[in-house]
Design brief:
- This protein is mostly helical.
- The chain contains four helices and no strands.
- The radius of gyration is 50 Å and the shape is elongated.
């Protein structure tokens, strides 16, 4: 793995960094830029002016590479049937997870369908109530219109009766009407 580097070239080699990591690990320490720098400067004669932050990135890269190589060695050391067994186990796990996800989806769809159906029933009930209320409003408006006409007819009869009464009073001035 080649990485493009910028800035000054380091004043140490990859082999020196690997040896510094080894020295730190032998003392039960955690390899970091600072701990490896101390080991390299103190025991390998590397100049003290090296950048610990840059060294830290190199230490991380080398530790990751070492771990990747260790995993590859472990896998390569497995018997021939191991990869096939892992593939079978992986397929079984994949199938189990997919079945579980399918069941969850089916349950969610069922729940959603029931919710939508309940909401549709509620909506239909509300629409029926609205229709009933609109019909009641129309009925009350017609009744109000009828009462308005009846009032006008009553007022007309009252006015006519007042007019007749006034006419009778005019014809019979002193009699009791």
């Amino acid at each position: 793995m080649t990485e493009k580097r910028t800035g000054r070239p380091p004043k140490y080699t990859e082999a020196q960094v690997l040896k510094g990591i080894e020295l730190v690990e032998q003392t039960s320490g955690a390899p970091t830029g600072d701990t490896v720098k101390k080991a390299m400067c103190g025991q390998l004669g590397v100049a003290v002016g090296i950048n610990a932050q840059s060294l830290d990135n190199e230490v991380k890269r080398l530790l990751e590479e070492r771990e990747r190589q260790r995993r590859e060695r472990l896998i390569a050391a497995l018997p021939d049937g191991s990869r096939a067994a892992v593939n079978e186990i992986g397929a079984a796990v994949e199938a189990a997870v997919l079945v579980h996800l399918g069941q969850e989806l089916e349950g969610l769809r069922t729940t959603a369908a029931a919710t939508v159906a309940a909401q549709n029933v509620d909506l239909a009930n509300q629409r029926a109530q609205i229709r009933d209320l609109l019909s009641e409003i129309d009925h009350l408006a017609a009744e109000l219109d009828d009462l308005g006409h009846a009032k006008l007819e009553g007022e007309e009869r009252l006015n006519k009766a007042h007019a007749e009464n006034a006419a009778l009073k005019a014809i019979m001035p002193h009699s009791v009407v």
